[in-house]
Amino acid sequence: MAETPENLPSGAGEIAQSYPEIWAAYAALGKACSEAGPLEDRTRRLVKLALAVGALSEGAVHSHTRRGLAEGLSKEDLKQVALLAIPTLGFPQGVKALTWIEDITDPASTDRAPSP
Fold first, then answer.
1. Which terminus of the chain has fewer Cβ atoms in its 10 Å neighbourhood, N or C?
2. 72 by DSSP, 3-state: which?
């Protein structure tokens, strides 16, 4: 799915609409970084999800989870990223990441309160 202001999360969409030249430069940087090495699409998506988890960014975890599903990654692939975070980032952060991933992979089962 191509990223346009209409299909971006609200904050990013507002920047893309208000500052299209900045958004274009940002998108070009992302593309250049993706093409700078030998990693395959699947691996890049999992790495980006892991970086989002480590950065404590719920929005980015949601975004990379949605993209991962759209690109054919399984729920189990995505959830393992959260489990791998446990020994490095700690149990609470790994569980938090798992709930963020499940917000997207299993929305019917997310009857818990939103993460702070």
1. C
2. coil
Bin 113: left if φ > 0, else alpha if -120 < ψ < 50, else beta: beta
Would you state the structure tokens that stand for residue 70, as one six-digit string? 């759209």
pLDDT digit string, tens, across residues 35-72: 999 999 999 999 999 999 999 999 999 999 999 999 99
For the chain, first and last CA: distance in Å? 29
Q: Where are the alpha helices (DSSP H) in 1-116?
A: 10-18, 20-34, 41-54, 58-70, 75-89, 91-105
Q: For residues 82 and 39, give the distance between their C-alpha atoms in angstroms, rounded to a whole number.
A: 20
Chain centroid to Cα 63, Å, comes to 4
Domain boundaries, the chain: 1-37, 38-106
Give the residue from 51, 50, 108, 105 showing the smallest Cα distance to 76: 105
